[in-house]
Structures are given as structure tokens and as C-alpha cells.
Amino acid sequence: VQLQASGGGLVQAGGSLRLSCAASGRTFGRYTTGWFRQAPGKEREFVAAIFRSGSTHYRDSDKGRFTISRDRSENTVYLQMNSLKPEDTAVYYCAADQTLIMSSIRSHRAYDYWGQGTQVTVSS
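User: That's the sequence. What structure does it adopt?
Assistant: C-alpha cells below.
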């Protein structure tokens, strides 16, 4: 599966962005899809994921601000980000894998397929 992330940009603190991850080649329904982010000089960290079943999982500190969803007809996974903070500034990546289990979902090493990343910058 090929992934294309988009939707990043510059936004003021408190604002919102919706990131998109479009898949080609295979349908997202066969994959667990995750969003990760990486700020300069930091490790890539888990943000959210949606299982093949449609159940979702979030980083504890983002619960209530971020929402991951999937549109099967458009073969796209979204990350709605609200109440953005300057510390949310990072390159955001979408990733997918067919065989993930719950214990691995937060590990970027567990995902086989990656999009190219989209920059999110939140100004204070």
C-alpha cells in the first residue's frame, strides 16, 4: 500500500488542522493505520491509531484534542487536531500495517508502510 499524507500547515495556538492520509494500492480496511510525529531532535512518537475493526487508540495526553477516523469510500484516514499547542509542532507521518497487535501499536518500528510526512507548525 502507498500512503500520501497531507493537510499540514501553519496555525496559531488554539487552532485546528485536519490531516489526511490517502491510500492507494490496497484498501485501508485491511490495515491498522497510525499517525506519528517527529519534532527536530526528538524521537518519532505515537499520536493515534485506528484498527481494522474501527476501534481507536490515542496517546493519553492527546485524548479529547485529537480524533482519528477513516472514510472507507475515499480510502482515507484523517487526524482531526483541535486546540493545537506550540509543542504539537512536528512532521506528522501516517503509517499502516496488516498484522499489528495492541501491544505494538505505539511502536513506529511495528509499521511496514509509511507516508512522506506533512509539517505542522503551531505558533504561540
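The two ends are 37 Å apart (CA to CA).
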